[in-house]
UniProtKB/TrEMBL annotation:
Responsible for synthesis of pseudouridine from uracil. Keywords: Isomerase. This is Pseudouridine synthase. SUPFAM superfamilies: Pseudouridine synthase. It comes from Psychrobacillus insolitus.
Length: 285
């Protein structure tokens, strides 16, 4: 499919080479593909020289052939968009929904719903940068073209996308803030459960207590690493499983759901450089 977007040059003297290599830090393969496709022009359609300086306020038009997303369209789950621009959408996943399909024909997921929403606007690409467990509600960052997808993937790998979770856990967490450093691996006794294991992958969770009552503690947690079920495993390891998280030792609750919410995402916009702080203000899960 054809991808296209406009970019306004923010400073005098910026070349396309510098933009791609230093500001956006694109990979060599992608830069080569864009060069071969002659992907950059001005608003009049004139192809631009990559080594020539541009003026502040000039508009660069990017147009290239790239991969499309092939998700089925669906409006089966409610969609709340916390942030959207030409390049990115940050959407809130309801508790109980998957982030993306795990098998052919599956369409009751967040990404199917986002694709349906974007298709009504004439867009045909949406790829998630990270995922949330089915039982976790909250924000998921989604790229609207493959160039931005690559940039956001690199940012996630470099820990430049900060995701903050709110969890309500059983009991009284002793310290008001702290860091949990405990490697996580598979649990050989259960196909989907994880456990703290010396032979597992490094896992680091930072937390701060933000509320207490006699039975529960409310914490904000930030992941330094992104292991499967990391927050759930770490607080269970401390003896304070997330309320309702029976898989990790919590007491049963009437709702049979657990209280974990990815409520904030903070990162520097890969295209504009603006610092984005996006919060999930959806009232219901």
């Amino acid at each position: 499919m054809i991808h296209t977007f406009n970019y306004t040059v923010p400073e005098d003297g910026l070349t396309i080479d510098t933009l791609f290599q230093e500001k956006w830090k694109l990979g060599k393969k992608l830069i080569h593909e864009l060069r071969m496709q002659k992907a950059v022009s001005n608003v009049g359609g004139e192809l631009l020289q990559w080594k020539l300086p541009n003026k502040k306020g000039d508009v660069l038009v990017f147009k290239w052939e790239g991969e499309a997303s092939n998700y089925l369209l669906s409006d089966q789950i409610p969609l709340y968009v916390a942030y959207e621009d030409e390049y990115i959408i940050v959407a809130s996943k309801p508790r109980g929904a998957s982030t993306h399909p795990n098998e052919d024909g599956q369409n009751h997921t967040l990404i199917n719903t986002v694709m349906n929403y974007l298709s009504l606007k004439g867009h045909h690409y949406a790829e998630h940068i990270h995922r949330l467990d089915e039982g976790t509600k909250g924000l998921v960052v989604i790229a609207k073209n493959p160039l931005v997808k690559g940039m956001l993937d690199r940012m996630l790998e470099n820990k430049e996308i900060v995701r903050t979770y709110e969890a309500i856990v059983e009991g009284q967490v002793k310290n008001n803030h702290g860091t949990i450093r405990a490697a996580i691996g598979s649990d050989r006794h259960h196909p989907s459960r994880r456990r703290v294991s010396p032979s597992g992958q490094q896992a680091i969770t930072h937390y701060e207590v933000v509320g207490r009552n006699p039975e529960f503690t409310k914490v904000n947690a930030i992941l330094e690493t992104g292991r499967t079920h990391q927050i759930r495993v770490h607080f269970s390891y401390l003896g304070h499983p997330i309320v309702g998280d029976e898989l990790y030792g919590a007491k049963k609750t009437p709702t049979r759901t657990y209280e974990l919410h990815a409520f904030k995402a903070q990162f520097k916009h890969p295209i504009t450089g603006e610092v984005l702080i996006v919060e999930d203000k959806k009232l219901e899960s």
